[in-house]
């Protein structure tokens, strides 16, 4: 099984190295038969090729690899698109049609958090919405008719709404069988109205699942007040982006939250940390690699579910357990959560825990 890796910008190369230590340990322990190939992206690609993400890289990811691990990008510092500053993350999501951005948020009793009992997953549609670089066939969805006016177009389609809702319900069937839809249909009557219509249509396919819908601003307040009440949350791109960051921070830190972008129909998947590139600490070996490590674990688990391969499920679960085991010891934590352990050392600690893990076949 072939995995493409793209360290990208900022702390990306450091947390990628730590993550690969862990994934290689899982590969050896569970006999996954993984091979890895690094590709250039971000500023490295811009300097060498004049663009942050080449189309041939996407083509190879689509046709030659089983999964992708993507490092962090400094998109805000890129030049304009016309000068090669392509959004790497969006490039993968649109280029590979990775519509399901899966973002869990779970509080850990042994780590400081502001949301005791939180254990939810936000299913975020990732290929349309308010994001101007992914809602037009040609051009972008933002424009300035004159220097004092800026307009933005939002795109919501039945196709994309139906498929993200369906994935949310499928996930809920594996969890606590509850899905909450996020919207602002009282104001966005047509766009959020269409999303809500699709949610209710899909709900009829899953009568075992409890459903509810919440207006986005009310849900933000409820997430702070009663986080333990939510299981799977499904949202359009913009709402899901904001709410998943809020949930992860409430649960302890953005640095502790994994994330994948996936397409259940094509089987393509990309692991990506929820946080940014943190250029202020890049090259200092102090970043917390937990988010990317957990994202890689999610990638393996997702591939295991799609292919019915227990060893991939076992490997993903072993990495998640190993991360928890290491984080539970205050002496083994990185600086952002009160410890002194460096990025590479943390990766080795988790890798050692994976190597020592026991096989636990998934039914």
What can you tell me about this protein's structure?
The strands form two sheets. This protein has a ten-stranded mixed sheet with strand order 2-1-3-12-11-4-5-10-8-9, sandwiched between helices. It has a two-stranded antiparallel ribbon with strand order 6-7. Strand 1, helix 1 and strand 2 form a beta-alpha-beta unit. Helix 1 packs across helix 9. The longest helix has 19 residues. The chain has about 375 residues and is an alpha/beta fold. The protein is globular, with a radius of gyration of 20 Å. Helices cover about 40% and strands about 15% of the residues. It folds into two domains: about 210 residues, Isopropylmalate Dehydrogenase (3-Layer(aba) Sandwich); about 120 residues, 3-Layer(aba) Sandwich (Rossmann fold). It starts with a strand and ends in an 8-residue tail after the last helix. The protein has eleven helices and twelve strands.
Summarize the structure.
The chain is of the alpha/beta class and 363 residues long. It has helices at 12-30, 42-49, 55-64, 88-95, 158-174, 191-203, 216-225, 237-251, 290-307, 310-327, 343-355, and strands spanning 2-6, 35-38, 67-70, 100-106, 119-125, 142-146, 149-152, 178-183, 210-215, 232-235, 260-262, 269-272. The chain is built from eleven helices and twelve strands.
